[in-house]
Amino acid sequence: MSHRIVLPRLMEIGAGASQQLAVVLRSLGCSRPLIVTDRMMVELGYVDRLEEQLQAAGIASQCFADTLPEPTAASIRAGVQMVRDGDFDSIVALGGGSPIDSAKAIGILGRYGGEMRDYRFPRDVCEPGLPLIAIPTTAGTGSEATRFTIITDETSDEKMLCAGLGFMPVAALIDYELTLSLPPRVTADTGLDALTHAIEAYVSRKASGYSDAQALQAMRLLAPNLRTAFHDSGNRAAREAMMLGATLAGIAFSNASVALVHGMSRPIGAFFHVPHGLSNAMLLPAVTAFSIPAAPERYADCARAMGVAAQTDSVETANQRLLVELQALNRELQVPSPGQYGIARERFFELRETMAQQALASGSPGNNPRVPTQAEIVELYETVWNQA
To answer: Looking at the domain assignment, is residue 111 inside a domain?
Structure first.
């Protein structure tokens, strides 16, 4: 059996990688980029730095800086209109997962039209959008190296998974120095998101030898450095390891898919506006405990790669240590329960069935080692609520 591997055409990795934007645009034959970002990147001066670099190279650019966290179909419409009205030959996505996901959608909708719901899974979006150069500023989503985007349909509160080659960036500039200013909460949420990507890619039913190699190395980089990056934001070695780990985790899940954690996480984000990485973290211990019986050896490998179990430990011991570590990480990184986050119990329980339906419809639970029924997903939501 063969496995198709999809990657950006070019990746520039390391300190100062973002300063290679003009060179990369030229190498791709692009000279009229639209920068898609958010207001925080403008306020931090990151957009000015890029524009100055492009101006020095004789490249004219414009900027759409109105992307929102957890982007919706409505939030990207103005950017889509800019592409339709302008003469852009490329898009530069600057920011965390939300600006990059927004840019992916803008590149497709701006070229082909329609509504975002027209492109949601199970459609395979192979049409090429505008060439996209992704510059991540968080170590989490891995979106700079994936063929996925997530956009919420605000009319139904459904987080739509959209997949295909059309959403894969042609280039990624992975500069860990852009993460040195991240506050602890964002560091924790994005880091736990990346760790979830790596674990789910490794245990996915669609995993391959290639994705396994990326996922295991991602865990080796992420797990020992997540606490350090959280407590010591200026630790360059930890930040560099986290950034590379997040990208490798993105490559892994882009080529193996995510599983039940992500399937259950998206409805929580859509209905209750919980940041994606945080909702993943809320779910990860309970979903891992549910799934271990179907793939105990794979989860034991995760524990060993994360450094919480020795090679000589039994599979059962390694899995016990994995569960203890996931719970300990959530405590130390101050991950709240849904109730502690401010979600009303009555509303959460009222939406259990709907969230379970949306989780299954996304397709991600079907990749899980233990494929759940809708009733089991409902039970897992209840477990997550009660585990605080």
So the answer is: yes
Are 20 and 12 contacting, i.e. CB atoms less than 8 angstroms apart?
yes
CB 326 within 8 A of CB 384: no
Same domain, 287 and 225: yes
Q: Which long-range contacts (CB under 8 A, 24 or more apart) does 233-237 make?
A: 233/180, 233/181, 233/182, 233/183, 233/184, 233/187, 234/180, 236/176, 236/180
CA distances from 352 to 46, 212, 343, 346 (A): 41, 33, 13, 10
Q: Tokens 């592409």 label which residue? A: 83
pLDDT bracket for residue 16 (50, 70, 90)? very high
For the chain, the domain total comes to: 2
Is the CA virtual torsion 121, 255, 138, 275 positive or negative? positive
Cis, peptide link before residue 122, omega less than 30° from 0: yes
Query: Which of 159, 179, 199 is the endpoint of a domain?
Result: 179
Do 174 and 189 lie in a common domain?
Answer: no
Output phi, psi for 136, to 5 deg: -75, 145
Beta strands in the chain (DSSP E): 10-13, 33-36, 62-64, 90-95, 132-136, 148-153, 158-163, 171-174
Report CA-CA distances (Å) from 238 to 174, 226, 233, 334: 15, 7, 9, 19
Residue 139 sits at the vertex; the CA angle it makes with 136 and 145, to the nearest 5 degrees, is 55
Please identify, among 126, 150, 179, the residue that sits at the C-terminal boundary of a domain. 179
Per the rule left: phi > 0, alpha: psi between -120 and 50, beta: everything else, 151 is beta
Reduce the DSSP state of residue 147 to 3 states and report it.
coil
Residue 1 falls within a domain, yes or no? Answer: no
pTM attached to this predicted model:
0.94
pLDDT tens-digit readout, 294-349: 999 999 999 999 999 999 999 999 999 999 999 999 999 999 999 999 999 999 99
- 3-state SS assignment for residue 89: coil
326 lies in the same domain as 364: yes
- CATH number, domain of 331, equals 1.20.1090.10
Give per-residue pLDDT as tens, 197-229.
Answer: 999 999 999 999 999 999 999 999 999 999 999
Domain that holds residue 168: 10-179
